[in-house]
Specification:
This protein is an alpha+beta fold. It has 4 helices and 5 strands; from the N terminus they run βααβββαβα. Helix 3 links the parallel strand 4 and strand 5. The protein is globular, with a radius of gyration of 15 Å. 20% of the residues are buried.
C-alpha cells in the first residue's frame, strides 16, 4: 500500500480544483454546468476532502453532514473519485478512513451514501468497506 502525502479539506475558495475529476465522473455534463452546480452546493454545506500525492490532487470525496430522523447526524461521502493510475494502491481506503475520522470529529454517528445499481465495482467496494444496502434511492424528474 502506498501512503498518500496528504488528505485534507479543500478550502471553499479552492473547490474549483475538483472540476477536472468531477468531469471524469460526469462526462456528459458540461463544465460550465458543473461549476454552477458546485457554487450552489457550497451554499448548501458541501465540503470536499482532497487526496494529494506530491502536491497533486489525485482523489476527491465530496462530503455532506446532515441529520435525519432515522439515523441522526451522519456524514455522506459523495462523488468519490481517484485517478485511475492511483487505484488499487490503498488510497481509497486511506481517504475513507480520513472521512470517517472527520465525521466522528463532527459528532456524526454513521456514514451513508448512494451508489448506482449499475456500478458493480462501486457496490462491491462499499460492501467491502462495511456498508449495508438498506433501501432504494428513487428519483423523479420534475420537468
Amino acid at each position: 500500500m502506498v501512503t498518500a502525502t496528504e488528505i485534507k479539506l479543500i478550502p471553499p475558495d479552492n473547490l474549483i480544483s475538483i472540476i477536472p475529476l468531477i468531469q471524469q465522473l460526469n462526462p456528459s455534463v458540461p463544465e460550465t454546468t458543473l461549476k454552477t452546480r458546485l457554487e450552489e452546493m457550497i451554499t448548501q454545506g458541501y465540503q470536499c476532502a482532497g487526496l494529494y500525492n506530491d502536491d497533486q490532487l489525485v482523489g476527491i470525496c465530496g462530503l455532506w453532514i446532515m441529520t435525519k430522523f432515522y439515523v441522526d447526524k451522519h456524514i455522506e461521502p459523495d462523488n468519490v473519485f481517484i485517478l485511475p493510475e492511483y487505484r488499487r494502491l490503498g488510497f481509497g481506503k486511506q481517504l475513507l478512513e480520513w472521512v470517517y475520522d472527520y465525521g466522528l470529529s463532527q459528532g456524526c454517528v454513521a456514514s451513508e451514501l448512494n451508489c448506482y445499481v449499475s456500478n458493480e465495482t462501486g457496490n462491491a467496494f462499499w460492501e467491502r468497506e462495511g456498508f449495508a444496502k438498506i433501501g432504494y434511492h428513487y428519483q423523479k424528474p420534475l420537468e
